[in-house]
Amino acid sequence: MAKSLFAIFPSFRDISDEEWESAKPQIREFQAKATLFRRDDAASYCMFLLSGTVLISSLDAGGREAVSNRLRPGDVCAMMVLCGLSEREYPGTITAETEGEALFVEKRSFLRWIHEYPSIRQVVFGNILDGLIQLGSQLSDKLSQPLDSRLAGALLKRTSEQLPSVRTTHQQLAVELGSAREVVSRILGRMKQRGWIATERGIITVLQRKALAELVGD
């Protein structure tokens, strides 16, 4: 555990053995679509992703689920930290996008680490700043780009020439893009008719990356 953990979160090397023991660390494996973290968990634990990717979502004013961020190994959930420091309830849910592993430690221990270890404090708040910058960019894209361009961009980001397929559903894409499933399904249908993508249950395969890239660039 220590080798992979410290490779992803090097600042955790500074934590003393006594502090680690009191934090009661647990590594949990999870499958895609599993719920990893919610309001009840946030009252007691903090979570750090070691492998895989997860989505942070919450309900908007209209009661519709919306994805606010995606976490990868080494990222720190800004809402988790800020809710802990302000003693407010965690307003979202963290759901697995892929299978992976996560470290859980007691919340009070992690909050103490932020105060006592400068290296951890710098990483945590630097990570939060990066997340806020990324969020601002995403909001700007939503205001300036049409949905079909954003959908094409999402598919390109989650695939590659070597790995052209992604496991996802129309509903998951709709939540991520802040739209309705029916609208996303219509756009995917047009992309499929044009031969840009292929679809099967729970899987989308990009066939024409150049065509999607041109759509993003329009």
TrEMBL record:
Keywords from the UniProt entry: Activator, DNA-binding, Transcription, Transcription regulation
User: Residue ranges of the Cyclic nucleotide-binding domain?
Assistant: 28-131
Highest classification ranks of the organism: Bacteria, Bacillati, Bacillota, Bacilli, Bacillales
Protein name, as recorded: Crp/Fnr family transcriptional regulator
**What is the originating organism of this protein?**
Brevibacillus choshinensis
One Pfam family it belongs to: cNMP_binding
- Matches recorded under CDD domains: CAP_ED
Q: Provide the HTH crp-type domain boundaries.
A: 145-210
Looking at the record's lineage, which domain of life comes first? Bacteria
